[in-house]
Hints:
The complex is a heterodimer of chains A (393) and B (551).
Chain A: H1 12-33, H2 37-57, H3 63-105, H4 119-149, H5 161-164, H6 174-181, H7 183-214, H8 222-234, H9 237-250, H10 257-281, H11 286-293, H12 298-327, H13 330-335, H14 343-353, H15 358-387
Helix pairs in contact in A: 1-2, 1-3, 4-15, 6-15, 7-10, 7-12, 7-14, 8-10, 10-12, 11-12, 12-15
Chain B: H1 4-8, H2 25-65, H3 70-75, H4 77-83, H5 96-112, H6 115-123, H7 129-139, H8 141-154, H9 161-168, H10 171-179, H11 195-198, H12 200-217, H13 228-240, H14 251-262, H15 271-278, H16 285-293, H17 301-306, E1 309-312, E2 315-318, H18 326-357, H19 360-375, H20 378-389, H21 394-401, H22 417-440, H23 445-453, H24 458-486, H25 490-495, H26 503-512, H27 517-541
Helix pairs in contact in B: 2-27, 4-5, 5-7, 6-7, 8-13, 12-13, 18-19, 18-22, 18-24, 19-22, 20-22, 22-24, 23-24, 24-27, 26-27
Amino acid sequence: MAVETQAIKKPLGFTAAVIGAFGALFGVFVGAANGSVLGGIVAGFVIMAAVAAGAMSVDRKMEAPVKWGFVILMVLAGFVLGGLPGAVVGAIFGYIFGLLIYWVGMGRYRVPLPPYLTAGQVLWHYAFRTICGAIFVFLITPILVVMPLSFNAENFFTFTPEMLRFDPEGYSLRHYREFFQSSDWQQALRNSLIIAPLATLLSVSFGTLAAIGLSSEHVPFRRAIMAVLISPMIVPLIISAAGMYFFYSRIGLQGTLAGVVLAHAALGIPFVIITVTATLVGFDRSLTRAAANMGANPVTTFFRVQMPLILPGVISGGLFAFITSFDEVVVVLFVGSAKQQTLPWQMFTGLREQISPVILAVATILVVISIGLLATVEVLRRRSERLRGMSPG
Amino acid sequence: MTDTAATTATPEDTGPMLAADGTPLKRSLARALRAQKMRALALIAPLLIFVLLTFIAPIVDMLFRSVENQIVSDTLPRTTLALKDWDDSTGDLPGDDIFFAAYQDIFLAAEAKTHTRLGTRLNYEFTGVSSLFRKSGRGLDDIGEVYQDAFKDLDKDWDKGAPWVELMGSDDFVAEAQAWEKGDALPEFELRDGMADLLPLTAVAYEDFARFQRVEEEKSLLKEEPWTLVHTMLFRDLQAQDVSGYSGPRAEMLKAADALVDGGELPPLDVRTTFEKIDKDWMDVDVWETIKMYSPNYTNGYFLNAVDMQKTPDGPAWRDDDERIYGLLFKRTMFMSLVITFSCIALAYPVAFLLSNLPARTANLLMILVLLPFWTSLLVRTSAWKVMLQQQGVINDVLVWIGLVDDANRLVMINNQLGTIIAMTHILLPFMILPMYSVMSTIPQTYVRAAKSLGATNWTAFWRVYFPQSVPGIGAGSILVFILSIGYYITPEIVGGTTGTFISNRIAYHISSSLNWGLAAALGTILLAVVLILYWAYDKIVGIDNVKLGG
């Protein structure tokens, strides 16, 4: 049985000093905004140390009232200093510091850790998590910033004062309206929705067959074939695009829908091959033999026995191929002509010439689509693992 | 049923073991194996052919284009042949025969409008050639006009299509040409017997003219007066040949012209002076050297260009320092890819470590934060960085708001190397985290605990026990990120400005703007070689089969 670590109330001086240090850190920004960094540090330290000391001195049962009181206080202070945005920042700040004071003061931070850790180890543990948290923020912030900006009422690529004041005037759906009304964007959307499914269909049908062939026991030149089939994923896109541009203009496919579809299908194939062969690794071959034994012909065996079992892999390979084509811009820029402009192409030219925040609206729509696809793939992966008995549940 | 094989092979029977149908078991098994192989290949074949046609063929085409140089010998066949015997080391201009050959070639090229293409091609190697060819295409008509006018003054028929056809064409062709009606396919020109010996140069020029009229213009020869080139050639032929023996159609007309030429009243043919008059640059030995140097069908010129060298008569040589750009670009691409790879390692290691040590539920939740950017469109992420890094963008606004940066001195984080590095580190980070995570989650935590219980400090336990086991993950992720980043195009193009661009941006520029496809292909080939070497290393370390896609 694991040893329980008890939360032990810390000495008052320790709590006041730690919370004061956090206050000083926050004070740097407030101070800088108001002209004096040093003043901010000192004031932040003193105020927060005092608040912490006060909170620790009252009875433990007073925890909730103290926390909420502090939140209200901070909201008021924020509102006086910076209006509505200030109040929101104050509320967040008050809530976090309320939690922090009791978390530190009551020694609750020790609870999830083994009791034998030294103070240095505990400090490192939380410092490490803070670093990781910062990296996660780095990973996710760009996507989170795009979404609210797409509701900007102005033609700016940044938050306007109205938006920061949470003024409804600052927000609008005009960029979405523009996206749905502009014939250029609609044409691009239509092109994307024609090209991606066609390319996916090609790569999935060829790819699944080949993956089944590749996973049988005796395949001559297996490594060489695999290398050729995976190569579209390895060769840098610009080189594929250059080669396809040269070659497709020789044979008259450059600037045609067929050319773009073929090119995208080629790019999607490695993903189908990789996912489907991975699914087939866990496929029990005795099932097909059993089906054959009971009189099913190879086609029936394939569609009634093998296909249902590898379907999750096929679908997620197809989704990979779809997203590859749907997001692809380099190859379509070279192989396609103005008639085959896809969404990414339109976004790319928009970004280069910096025309309008409609791009952000499109970006938000695309993020929503990718969340949907991500969820689908995840569900399929779990289902596939469950079917093959690789993971419980 | 298969155990019949056992029963048929009695102990006394020393022959081979037989299968049910009586064939030896060995052969029967071999046949089954072969059938299995064929079935596997038949399943793979459609895709393999598809990939070979849609992907491998374009790559091979690109490799071919990086050395292909047929345009010079195609456009200037006679000149390149004549230049073979010209010794360029003496510094003397080529002889009159080469100028004469160039006159014929450029005249034909100008009619077919291919001379400007050749000019553009040679302009990559020697600046100024493009305008030289353009001017010459227009100017060379003048040489023949003197003779055309003289012949015309002698007999109007020399300036008409039909008399020429009767003179040059075979009787069959004349009949076919007269029978031709608009809409039919044009008859193929056929030279009169003996004409090639009688008027050799004229015959060649007229045949070229006839082919051009039939294929390009689709007009009847009877209606078209020949080019001035044909008249010039007739003049040359009449100077050298004796036509008194000719008795075919239009013999009188030809003999009259011969008399005119022999009379010596016409100005002598001086192609060299005309070239000089068109542009003095034709008297520059370097121009001729360039043409001679690039007359072979295959050239290493593009590759030399791609590594900042150039062809000279004395072999490859470095370009001047201020003209060297590709070495710088390759070095910059390598350097920035390395920086991106290292920043990805630095950011991915803690995250992968945390994810692999957390309970599965929490790890799966946090994994979404890694997979979401991985799944989000590349352009969405690039546009997000453009929005955030701009001088009037979100990061600068926040920094100004909290007072860390003065409003007048906003940070320049975009359109330079910093912008490219930040954005690409973010975009490629999931490719580093995922392989690291898959390696780290296989490392048993008990090892570190054992090390600690044996007295190792935290640092020693990590550095001597945990870290060495995680190195394969770092290697796999690093090669993947490095391969991906050296070929990146979109992100550097949008956030890189001029100093943060990669070699791929230069390739794109040569394909779509400067139209120097050969150089683009050579740069692409070098980049491809680098990537393939890295890919080979990746295969050795990780194995292609182990490529994992987003968990």
